[in-house]
Automatic annotation (TrEMBL):
UniProt cross-references to Gene3D superfamilies, sorted A to Z: Tetratricopeptide repeat domain
Coiled coil stretches, renumbered: none
Amino acid composition bias (Basic and acidic residues), ranges on this chain: 97-106
Protein's name according to its UniProt entry: Uncharacterized protein
Regions of compositional bias (Polar residues) in chain numbering: 114-127
Domain of life: Eukaryota
Lineage: Eukaryota, Fungi, Dikarya, Basidiomycota, Agaricomycotina
Domain DNA/RNA-binding per the UniProt entry, residue ranges: 184-474
Region (Disordered): 89-127, 147-173, 548-613
Pfam assignment, any one: EST1_DNA_bind
Compositional bias (Acidic residues): 596-605
Telomerase activating protein Est1-like N-terminal domain sequence ranges: 2-149
InterPro entries according to UniProt: DNA/RNA-bd_Est1-type, Est1-like_N, Est1/Ebs1-like, TPR-like_helical_dom_sf
């Protein structure tokens, strides 16, 4: 802050002043002999600035290498590889015979580090935090270089700026290429991965999103910058400014089109999904007000967002990433309202938690529909039962499931751990309906995808990595992943794990969460518990434990057998598996789903590939 950023600030101020002067000179008629800044002075200043950024980048890159190597931070090697920084590069060292000393040269590397009074874990965490900060600086330098980069075919711009026209003709000569901040983004993401409990890197990612006019992505990143153990405080003010400006712009737009809200035209939203993101941003902006003002500006806007969300999910309009981020942002808003906001309102907190549960309920209802369709599919490979819509919602369902486990006492209304009086707050209206839908969903998912036939989690999935350090989830995603694989990480690389296997892991984890939640005293899931008691009596199944046979041999993860069978010939075993499924019969009786024997023979021939030559 006292060296690199101080000088960068001076450069930016001078460049902005010259740009302003050049624009003024171009629009005003001045005396021919009047002294005014010219393009040559501007180009010289830009050249010095780019040279400064280049030398700064070299210094900070060498500092990254030095920190990683001197303190043996092996966990940072992947970050260096991602950023194409050679870990064995030797920084410049002061040489008495070199005749040239500058602040880019490093002192000799000590043979042994000086002893420290701090515990080893504290030392390592502090050094990793320092390395993470240097990566943020590298990201900022890369961002400035791209922001102020000028070429013959594009002008300078922070966020995107217009093209250049031919002198005296007014015709477009060359359109500027879109600015790319890939290097800066990679630096910020590596910094965040090293220190997920710190919010600085997420704040910088929010800035990058603002350059691309992606307010929704900025909002999500601002929440990630705030909802961590070491929040980045400027993110709160910056997010507030973004939401305030969005709300004011929305009000002006509404005045020009009386009676038309962003959330009214569903048909337009289906052809233009970003407008739904605008509705979500508006809702988060309204949450910064009090309940009365929120309702006066846009009545029942939260209900409208949930309705649109449900329909867009069912119609496969929203991407997997957008579905997940809508859930994550809502969780962040609730956490911020409870833990950060100085003027927290119980009424608004109740409204937000009601919205979180309503979004989750919409996903569950969609899941019930898809699971009923999946139950009609007879396939050896369980992955073939995952419908396209269900596939899109699985990461968000898993994140919502973890949030429910972390905040279960809060949702159940434990006044010792939550501030909401559910008997008086409006959230009481959604609680009974939520548990009814959740129980129905949990019952179906373990019927269509039997837990003992699914692969367990053996590695962090994409949402695990993205949610590291995110306090609304309490570290549950990563923690559970480690618990289900106590012997170590899956040796396979992410590319070696088939996407279908990852989806089945998600389904196993969602069903496992439902089982654990149902066993908590006070959870209104009696029917689900009773059904699993029947399953346990038939399978000898325990939550989180792979089913074992009489000799202690684990059943294969993808086995179709759901019952205990005697040691018979494989043909008899297949026949028994085809005709007998007491666990499935128990669930079908509860759900009213017909058993395979009740289906017409023609249908069975159509659906079962075993009968196809």
């Amino acid at each position: 802050m006292q060296t690199s950023y101080a000088l960068i600030s001076i450069y930016k101020t001078r460049i902005a002043a010259l740009e302003h002067a050049l624009r003024e000179a171009g629009t005003q008629r001045q005396h021919p002999r009047a002294q005014r800044p010219g393009p040559v002075e501007y180009r010289k200043l830009m050249q010095r600035f780019k040279q400064f950024l280049s030398t700064e980048e070299r210094f900070w890159t060498q500092l990254v290498v030095r920190i990683q190597r001197q303190f043996a931070l092996s966990e940072a090697r992947s970050a260096l590889a991602t950023l194409s920084i050679a870990a064995d590069t030797d920084p410049d060292v002061d040489d008495a015979d070199a005749g040239k000393h500058d602040h880019f040269r490093f002192p000799p590397e000590p043979v042994e580090s000086a002893p420290s009074q701090l515990p080893i874990s504290t030392q390592r965490n502090s050094r990793r935090a320092t390395l993470s900060k240097t990566l943020v600086v590298l990201g900022d330098l890369a961002r400035y270089r791209e922001q102020y980069n000028e070429g013959s075919t594009r002008p300078r711009g922070g966020p995107e700026r217009g093209g250049r026209t031919a002198r005296g003709r007014g015709s477009q000569v060359d359109l500027p290429r879109a600015k790319t901040y890939d290097k800066a983004r990679a630096c910020y993401e590596c910094a965040r991965d090293l220190m997920p409990d710190e919010g600085n890197a997420s704040h910088q990612l929010a800035i990058l999103a603002s350059y691309q006019k992606d307010t929704f992505e900025s909002l999500v990143q601002y929440y990630k910058a705030l909802c961590v153990r070491t929040p980045y405080d400027p993110a709160a003010e910056n997010m507030g400014n973004v939401l305030s400006k969005f709300l004011e712009a929305w009000k002006r737009k509404r005045k020009t089109k009386p009676g038309q809200l962003l959330s009214d035209d569903l048909n337009r939203q289906k052809t233009n999904p970003p407008s739904f993101k605008d509705s979500v941003i508006l809702l988060h902006a309204l949450w910064r007000l009090d309940v009365e003002e929120m309702d006066s500006i846009s009545p029942k806007h939260d209900e409208s967002v949930v309705k649109e969300f449900s329909e867009l999910v069912s119609d496969r309009i929203l991407s997997t990433d957008t579905i997940t981020k809508v859930i994550v942002a809502a969780q962040g808003a609730l956490w911020k309202q409870r833990k950060v906001s100085a003027s927290a309102s119980v009424a608004m907190e109740s409204r937000i938690v009601g919205h979180v549960l309503a979004l989750y309920r919409a996903l569950l209802q969609s899941g019930i529909t898809e699971l009923d369709e999946a139950a009609k599919i007879v396939e050896e490979d369980l992955a073939m039962r995952i419908t396209a819509t269900f596939r899109r919602t699985l990461p968000a369902l898993r994140i919502a499931s973890k949030w429910l486990r972390v905040n279960l006492n809060y949702v159940l209304g434990d006044t010792r751990k939550g501030k909401i009086d559910l008997e008086r707050g409006p959230v009481i209206k959604v609680i009974p309906a939520f548990w009814e839908v959740y129980t129905s969903f949990a019952t179906r998912i373990v019927l269509v995808f039997p837990p003992t036939s699914l692969p367990k989690l053996t590695r962090p999935l994409e949402e695990d990595v993205d949610a590291r350090g995110y306090l609304p989830l309490g570290g549950m995603l990563v923690q559970d992943t480690l618990l289900t694989n106590p012997e170590g990480d899956d040796p396979r690389t992410p590319e070696q794990v088939h996407p279908n296997e990852e989806q089945l892991m998600r389904i196993w984890d969602i069903g496992h969460d439902a089982r654990l939640i149902a066993e908590i005293s006070g959870t209104p899931m009696e029917s689900f518990r009773a059904q699993f008691s029947l399953i346990d009596s038939v399978r000898g199944y325990e939550p989180g434990i792979t089913q074992e046979g009489a000799e202690g041999e684990a059943v294969a993860p993808n086995s179709r057998s759901h019952i205990a069978v005697d040691d018979r010939q494989s043909e008899e075993e297949d026949a028994r598996t085809e005709t007998t499924d007491p666990v499935g019969d128990a669930f079908r009786e509860v759900l009213g789903v017909p058993s395979p024997e009740d289906e017409e023979e023609e249908d069975e021939i159509v659906w079962n590939p075993r009968y196809v030559n």
